[in-house]
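Lab notebook: predicted structure, single chain.

Context: the supervisor wants predicted structures on file for every construct in the current expression panel, including those that have not yet been purified. This is the next one on the list. No modifications to the sequence; it matches the entry in the shared construct table.
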Amino acid sequence: EKNHIVYADPLLTIETLDEISINLSGYQALIFTSPNAVRCYCRSSSGRNISVFAVGHKTANIAETYGFKEVFSANGDVKKLSNTIKACLHYKTGTLLYLCGKHVSGDLKSELENAGFKIEKKEIYDAVAVSDLSDISKTQIKNGSIDYIPFYSKRSALIFIELAKKAELLKYLTNITVLCLSPSIAVIASSANWKE
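Prediction complete. Output recorded below exactly as produced.
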């Protein structure tokens, strides 16, 4: 096994949009598609006595850590989450509350509405792009110390390329291999000239 040195440079900061005051009695379940949504909800709301449907294990684990007792993980993407909800719940039992960020991929609301569910979508946080790469990142990219950069979302790839352009780093990306979570992210990343 190789030893890797990892530099982390967050491209987004999470900002809660409002104080979250939600009466859970009108809902049959909460839906979370990110750990950030769970954290933002739990910072200002104490309600935990409701079923939670989470997109993946990380989001589900955080919901359990914050005290939710009945947590279902779809272990995947929005499509798997939709299928999990349809398999576990009946659309006539009550409204679903989908708590999310301003920028979400996939259209979970439409998927569930097409299956007869009533779903209320509430944006509770925003992932705000940073205005610049860190000085460490700029130096590491310029001196060829970075071999790989992973992107987990289309938005993070777009933000990175814009910040690299702003810092006049695009010419140095030809020494770096980009690792993308999905083919759709790879399409966005390919707008820059990478080693691979």
